[in-house]
Design a protein that fits this description.
Blueprint (H helix, E strand, L loop, with lengths): L9 H28 L15 H12 L3 H10 L8 H8 L1
Length: 94
């Protein structure tokens, strides 16, 4: 219930955190894809499989990162997430 102080609604808080977690997940995936694209082999030879040390280290680094949900929850607790609810804003104006 400590997480719901700002919104007053558990479900709204979960939705905010979930949307931010999705954003973080996309950012991490794009970053990882860019880094791994440098190692992409454009040869279609299936017999040649190269184990690149740098590629393995990059993959391990991203595996060790905290889950996007945990990052989003921490950001919410620290007040780093901006959110608004258009429905509530509309009710206040009426």
């Amino acid at each position: 219930m400590d997480l719901c102080k700002d919104t007053g609604n558990v479900y709204e808080t979960v939705a905010i955190i979930a949307k931010r977690a999705n954003q973080i997940s996309v950012e991490i995936k794009n970053d990882l894809s860019k880094k791994l694209a440098e190692f992409a082999s454009y040869n279609d030879n299936l017999e040649e499989v190269f184990e690149n040390r740098e590629q393995i280290e990059i993959s391990r680094y991203y595996e060790k990162l905290p889950k996007p949900t945990l990052i989003a929850t921490q950001e919410y607790i620290e007040g780093k997430i901006y959110y608004r609810n258009p429905a509530k804003e509309k009710e206040k104006l009426q």
